[in-house]
Amino acid sequence: MTDVERLLKQAAMQIGAGGSAGFVEVCIMHPLDLVKTRFQLQATNSSLKSADPHYYNGIIDCMKKMYKYEGLTSFWKGILPPILAETPKRAVKFLTFEQYKRFFMFGSSTPTPLTFSLAGLGAGITEAILVNPFEVVKVTLQSNKALATQVPSTWSVTRQIVRENGLGSKGLNKGLTATMARNGIFNMVYFGFYHSVKGYIPEYEDPLLEFGRKIAIGFTSGVLGSCVNIPFDVAKSRIQGPQPTPGVIKYNSTVGAINLVYREEGFRALYKGLLPKVLRLGPGGAIMLVVYDYVYNYLDNKFQVK
Q1: ∠ CA 231-100-12 to the nearest 5 degrees?
Q2: From the centroid of its chain, how far is CA 150?
Q3: Of 17, 148, 201, 214, which is most buried by a Cβ count within 10 Å?
Q4: Buried b (16+ CB within 10 A) or exposed e, 3-40
Q5: Rounded to two decimals, what is the model's pTM?
Q6: In terms of Cα–Cα distance, which of 265, 271, 267, 270 is closest to 46?
Q7: What is the mean pLDDT of residues 273-296?
Q8: Geometric angle at alpha carbon 84, from 82 and 85, rounded to 5°
Q9: CB contact set of 286 (below 8 Å; sequence gap of 6+)
Q10: Which regions are annotated as Solcar repeats (predicted)?
Q11: Does 235 score more than 90 pLDDT?
């Protein structure tokens, strides 16, 4: 097998394993992503707590009210955009991570923690550019508090966004810099921690213990990445979601949105949705990395790429 053939087969396996990991993760964890978005879109206003039936005081309260007012299927509102995006998104993320690793070796014979972190940063920014239009549509759908059966389709929401605001920074690419910051920082921590720590903790011969080792490291990686990047996630939700006053753009830039939230609602508001985000991306991060490893190893054994 020539070097070119080997590289192409490895790339195909990285795409297949990454796409499989993304699809499995989003199907399992989407309800918590929706809860996180609802919290991030909710302004801190004590006068709304008793007056608005859609004001959420916690994860359980949010889920109860969503079930009561919007129905069971509301927990999967906006799932089609991430399903359509996750396969290419995760495929691109894992593929570009492997390619960026080669670029950031800095003369070392083996990857270092800096290599993993910078490769993760590059992969996160790359996937953000690809997925941002899907994120705009997803946030628009998730912010709709009508019954699930009354929510417009993904395609009709997409057409409305394009018709009213176009494809640029006010339309389908709204909040791109916030998405790039969010994804870049998350993946820098996520990949940097996972691959660095995995190399220091010995592998187990017992398959069950080895599975637990990968799950534990992946879970910790997802939690750390979530805690570091959430202010950018809040800014992204505020920029891409409905504005407080229709027709008036309050949240425009990433840094401006973060400063505005901090000034008006306090430091804690920058961490809105942290618990559902951690509950999603902790196990979700573990699921992705473990599924990727097992699918990639399966394909590697099947096609004997050396």
Answers
A1: 110
A2: 26
A3: 17
A4: eeeeeebbeebbbbbbbbbbbbbbeebbbbbbbbbbbb
A5: 0.78
A6: 265
A7: 85
A8: 60
A9: 214, 215, 216, 217, 218, 219, 221, 222
A10: 9-103, 111-200, 209-298
A11: yes
Tokens found for residue 192: 């940097």
Q: SS3 of 131, please?
A: helix
Check residue 219 and give its pLDDT: 93
Contact 218, 277 (CB under 8 A): no
Of 97, 85, 160, 159, residue with least CA distance to 124: 97
Tell me: pLDDT of 306 over 70. Answer: no
Q: Which two tokens stand for residue 98?
A: 């492997």
Kindly tell me the sign of the dihedral angle through the C-alpha atoms of 214, 83, 80, 244.
Answer: positive
Nearest Cα residue to 41 out of 232, 238, 174, 226: 238
Helix axes 3-41, 207-240, angle to 10 degrees: 60
Residue with tokens 């192409």: 8
CA distance 123 to 114: 14
In the chain, how long is the greatest CA-to-CA distance? Answer: 69
For residue 213, how far is the Cα from the chain centroid?
A: 23
Q: DSSP string of 93-104?
A: HHHHHHHHHHHT
Residue 81 banded pLDDT, cuts 50, 70, 90: confident
Rounded Cα gap, residues 109 and 274, in angstroms: 38
Q: Which two tokens stand for residue 222?
A: 């997802």
CB 234 within 8 A of CB 40: yes
How many Å apart are CA 127 and CA 161, to the nearest integer?
21
**Are residues 185 and 121 in contact, defined by beta-carbon separation less than 8 angstroms?**
yes
**How deeply is 80 buried, as exposed, middle or buried, from its count of CB atoms within 10 A (0-12, 13-18, 19+)?**
middle
The DSSP code for 110 is S
